[in-house]
Amino acid sequence: MPLHISKSVTLILLFTGFLGISQTAFLSKEEAVKQTLENNLGIKVANNNVAIADNNQGILNSGYLPTITAQAGANYNRDDSTIEFPGQFLTDGEGAILVDESTGNPIARPDVEINKAEAQRYNASVNVNYTLFDGFGRYYNYKRLQEEYNLSSLQARETIENTIIQLFSVYYEVARISENVGVLEETFANTKNRLTRAEYGFEYGQVNKLDVLNAQVDLVNDSINLMTERQLLENTQRDLNIILNQEIESQFNVDTTAVFVSPIELENFVGDAPNNNVRLLQAKSNMTINDYTVKNAKSVFLPTVGLTGSYGWNLNQSAASAFFPGTNNTTFSFGLGANLTWNLFDGGSGITQVKNARLLLDSQDQLQQQLALEVTRDIANAKGNYENRLKVFRLQEQNVLTATNNFDRSNERYKLGQITSVELRQAQINLLNAQTSKNLAKYNAKLAELQLLQLTGQLLNVSY
């Protein structure tokens, strides 16, 4: 009978087994990109900004449409009045003053009382104003708003590109750790088999107790490394869920393959980068916006011509008075007009605005030239980093083959008793380090490629 594994080692084996990742859904790179574009909160905000700019550049915000206003009013009055005639007397039809026969005094003209005298006034009108010409200010403002929409689209694209880079930084980290977990599981299994062989060998007197103890210590270390890496994997998956804007505890397997763009295609991308780099395109858009701002400022030197039109209705209903009968007066009116305004001199503010706009345009031109130099440098650096990391990855692939061959041969020699367990362990650690280094180099090279693709403006046009 072989020796039984100690209780502590048994608990480690059980606990490590429970930590194994159960079968979960597979999250492809394409699906990750799709979910990010649909659900990422930063991208949603960027899309809202584009929608706002789209509204601003529409015909309803252009100033080319007339303004139409409608007005209506109603007034009601009710008066109670008493009209006195001091010093006035009643007369007959021929102008003779009438006399009271009983007193012989002239008869005073009586007061007139008018109660509940009602008057109503109603009016309604429609007025139209249209600017026929404003010195081309409206035209250049409309063109500026259209270019601002284009700029907001480029800004949204930059947000999407940065988010995609962030996505794959975490996605490939999940992939790297997943591969490392597989490597550590294999290392753990090899150490477990070694412990079993050592226990059999010790039982039959082929090895000493030291080999068993060394295997137990190595198994504990391997199990700790495996548990730590699995916990790191869970944490990194939560980071990815944040970017995807999905349930934080969602678990999934990811694609661990890395396909690189062909060198010829990459060279074409680099050569066409000035026409596709999003930062350069934004700089060009800002130049156009500033140019329109200068032209718009010049409109202050030209006259403004406008047209007006109106149609109105009025109804006045007046009550009867002491001297006049009540009347109803209805009026319909229609009017057309034109006006010209020419601000011959505004105190110099218009001239100042034009000068400042030209200076801003010149500053934007300087910034664009500086940015072109920086982007050229960034592309050269990114290209060099990518090529170097790709070479490191190829070397690490070869190193894994060498380390695997070395471990296999060391394992056979250990079985034959030609090397010690310490030497076998060293070969095992060398293989582990080579495999994890290869995983790191692979995803470092892939991320360097994505960063280069972003600088060349092709990040959203390639498969991942």
The gist of it:
With 464 residues, the protein is an alpha+beta fold. It is built from nine helices and six strands, in the order αβααββααβααββαα.
Task: Provide structural commentary.
- This protein is an alpha+beta fold.
- The protein has one domain: Outer membrane efflux proteins (OEP).
- Helices cover about 60% and strands about 15% of the residues.
- It contains nine helices and six strands.
- Helix 8 (about 350-415) packs antiparallel against helix 9 (about 420-455).
- The protein starts with 6 loop residues before the first helix and ends in a 9-residue tail after the last helix.
- Residues about 1-5, about 5-10 and about 20 have low confidence and may be disordered.
